[in-house]
Design goal:
- The complex is a heterodimer of chains A (290) and B (380).
- Chain A is α/β, with parallel strands linked by helices and 290 residues long.
- Chain A has one domain: Thiamin diphosphate (ThDP)-binding fold, Pyr/PP domains (Rossmann fold).
- In chain A, 34% of the residues lie in helices and 16% in strands.
- Chain A has 10 helices and 8 strands.
- In chain A, strand 5, helix 7 and strand 6 form a beta-alpha-beta unit.
- In chain A, helix 2 crosses helix 7.
- Chain B is of the alpha/beta class and 380 residues long.
- Chain B folds into 2 domains: 185 residues, Rossmann fold (3-Layer(aba) Sandwich), CATH 3.40.50.970; 109 residues, Rossmann fold (3-Layer(aba) Sandwich).
- In chain B, the strands form 3 sheets. In chain B, strands 2, 3, 4, 5, 6, 7 and 8 form a 7-stranded mixed beta sheet that branches. Chain B has a 5-stranded mixed beta sheet with strand order 11-13-12-14-15, sandwiched between helices. A two-stranded antiparallel ribbon of chain B has the order 1-9.
- Classes of the chains: A alpha/beta (290), B alpha/beta (380).
- Strand 2 of chain A pairs parallel with strand 10 of chain B.
């Protein structure tokens, strides 16, 4: 046995990147900017998907429009890149029509909390068995960094040159209030915790929601005193505080060091998902099993 | 009527909206995503009762935007899917009608037209969405739209709309109106073996060189979510692999395909009904409820020995351009009564070489036959 074969035997080196089969390698390189957190999120997702034990063929990913919405296009799965804000109702249609599928929505904060806000709260209320991974970069990155519902008050963006006049949404608080049985938040720095949260999301029966705080260096970062991508990652490193039992009314983000970024697995409770409620009620009303 | 029955067969006394819902069930619809709106709500109500009986799903969404998104999602998961709405909801659906078109997703949209613009008169008839159905979503596309004029056609044409949606992999439309929808009359439902049903050409086996969107094939098989083909279905302009592209030649191939798959088969899709047109020197072009008023006008004119005929648009879209061209060469004039301010009149004018007279009627009531009659009088 040659040295090379020995190394392969012991899985020290691989013939190809083990993630290749999970990605559409022919679509790379990706479109994201240097320092963007989306590569980390993509990596975590494919690792979690592989570790989930759910067959690759049964993982479905739906997205709307925006930088984050480009993630599914790089995944070697059945992927649906739909319209702005409408990923959740589209995914709801898939899941209700075929409950056997493991349906995830990967979307940005603008997609989910601005244009798609109504769909989001209603999916949470219904408790459709979806996994929603929300990458929050505090602005509309793809269109050039305009402010949105998650932009902290006072923050500068390309449409708040004098600072943001509006209040911002506290994502975990809203999502928990609307009824999600699983709510977590991590930053792009917390790749191991994020992977574990994604895995948990696949297991949760019902709507699992994970917020991922992520750097957007050329727009939000640049205008808000994060001089480069590393500066924001350092903020994540220095000021993140893990607190699974945090008072969610107090976890809104200012994105001003040294204000804390509270992260953790905030909610994890049992709640019957939509498909099961639907099936049970119809079986009991019609008096027959399907 | 036993609603426990899987599918109905026999003679019934039913409203247009219920006939539409039963047509959908008979066509194999197993997913309804919708939002209640007058005068279409009875379709939602009936589907909420009937779909669970046949193993389908009724999903009431938060708005019409979510409804059509869910319908397109469910169809991609393999279910024959539909929604029903009226003007305001139809306006909200425009965005994702384009999504259905570009992703080549079969689905059926029923628009029970009411008076507009805006909220208009929710409980009364309009025909003001006839151009919107063709042009309302941005970008270039073609549609297949039916305009039923009876309870029976609410049933029959809903089935046809499903068949065409599945065959052409595209959203199709039933452009009904409040009067046809709320009209109650005899409905004959054939036994299932007598109802022609088209199911999509569902991809089952991965062949080498497979592409999910082969633009040289008007009827490509459709890969369904979870079947293992790992397809990318994209709202962006995409190539044969489903991959987004900025290349103008890709845009051309894609647009040629999504328009061509309908335009290349117009003769197979177009349906009209003609009454006393053989010797007519004036022809009324009408559709939906208005065609019922027009029929009376033709009968009355014939009693006065005037050579008036009726051409009814069963498919306003694609438009029967060839037939209008032929008839336009032969007749003195065409009269187009509509419960709008002249929508299909424009299209008739585009293809008819004879004078075209629009009879415009404000939304909120049927056109009185006398109003069409006086337009004919002026031609004498």
């Amino acid at each position: 046995m040659t040295q090379l074969e020995t190394l392969r035997e012991h899985e020290v080196i691989f013939p190809s990147n083990p993630k290749d089969e999970l990605l559409r390698a022919d679509r790379l390189p990706h479109i994201w900017c240097p320092g963007c957190g989306l590569g980390i999120v993509t990596g975590c997702f494919v690792e979690a998907m592989r570790a989930s034990g759910i067959p690759q063929d049964k993982h479905i990913v739906v997205s709307g429009i925006g930088c984050t919405a480009r993630i599914p296009g790089y995944l070697n799965l059945d992927t649906y890149h739909t319209t702005h804000g409408r990923a959740i109702p589209f995914a709801t249609g898939i899941k209700v029509a075929n409950p056997e599928l493991e349906v995830s929505v990967i979307a940005g904060d603008g997609d989910l909390f601005n244009i798609g806000g109504n769909h989001l709260i209603h999916a949470l209320r219904r408790n459709v068995d979806l996994n929603i991974f929300c990458v929050n970069n505090f602005n509309y990155g793809m269109t050039g960094g305009q402010f949105g519902a998650t932009t902290p008050p006072g923050a500068k963006t390309s449409t708040t040159p004098y600072g943001n006049f509006e209040a911002s949404f506290n994502i975990p608080y809203i999502v928990a209030a609307a009824g999600a049985p699983y709510v977590a938040r991590w930053t792009a720095l917390h790749s191991r915790q994020l992977l574990q949260s994604m895995l948990r999301a696949f297991q949760v029966q019902g709507l699992a929601f994970v917020e991922i705080v992520s750097p957007c260096p050329p727009t939000f970062g640049n205008l808000n005193n994060f001089n480069d991508a590393l500066a924001m990652m350092q903020y994540f490193q220095n000021c993140s505080r893990v607190d699974d039992h945090a008072d969610l009314s107090k976890v809104g983000l200012s994105m001003k060091p040294p204000d804390p970024i509270v992260v953790g697995n905030f909610v994890d409770v049992k709640k019957t998902p939509y498909n099961e409620v639907e099936r049970n009620m119809i079986q009991s009303a019609l008096g027959r099993s399907k | 009527m036993s609603l426990k029955a899987q599918t109905l067969a026999g003679e019934y006394f039913m409203s247009g909206n219920l006939a539409c819902a039963e047509g959908a069930i008979a066509a194999g619809c197993r997913f309804y995503g919708g939002y209640p709106i007058t005068p279409s709500s009875e379709i939602a109500e009936h589907m909420s009762r009937r779909l669970p009986q046949v193993g389908g799903h009724y999903l009431q969404m938060e708005d019409e935007i979510g409804s059509i998104a869910a319908v397109i999602g469910a169809s991609n998961a393999g279910a024959k899917s539909m929604t029903a709405t009226s003007g305001p909801g139809f306006s909200l659906m425009m965005e994702n009608i384009g999504l259905g078109v570009i992703t080549e997703t079969p689905c059926v949209l029923v628009n029970v037209q009411r008076a507009g613009p805006s909220t208009g008169i929710p409980t009364l008839i309009g025909q003001g969405d006839m151009m919107q159905v063709k042009w309302g979503s941005h970008g270039d596309y073609e549609v297949i739209a039916y305009a039923p004029n009876s309870v029976q056609e609410m049933f029959d044409l809903t089935i046809k709309a499903f068949n065409m949606a599945e065959k052409y992999r595209t959203p199709t439309f039933v452009m009904s109106d409040q009067v046809v929808a709320h009209m109650t009359s005899k409905l004959v439902i054939p036994t299932p073996d007598k109802i022609p049903i088209v199911n999509r050409n569902r991809l089952t086996k991965l062949n080498s060189g497979f592409t999910p969107f082969p633009y040289d094939n008007d009827f490509p098989p459709m890969a369904v979510a979870g079947d293992g083909f790992h397809i990318n279905v994209d709202s962006l302009t995409h190539d044969e692999r489903g991959y987004p592209s900025l290349d103008n030649s890709v845009s051309e191939r894609m647009l040629d395909h999504i328009t061509g798959k309908i335009l290349n088969h117009v003769d197979e899709i177009v349906e009209t009904e003609e009454y006393q047109t053989d010797d007519a020197d004036v022809i009324i072009i009408a559709y939906g409820s208005t065609s019922r008023s027009a029929l009376r006008v033709v009968k009355e004119a014939r009693q006065k020995e005037r050579r008036v005929g009726l051409l009814r648009l069963i498919t306003p879209w694609p438009f029967p351009a060839k037939r209008i061209e032929v008839l336009g060469e032969r007749v003195r004039a065409m009269v187009v009564p509509e419960i709008n301010y002249g929508q299909m009149e424009h299209v008739v004018r585009e293809f008819a070489s004879c004078p075209v007279i629009g009879v415009h009627h404000p939304a909120g009531a049927l056109i009185p036959p006398q109003k069409i009659g006086s337009a004919l009088e002026k031609l004498q």
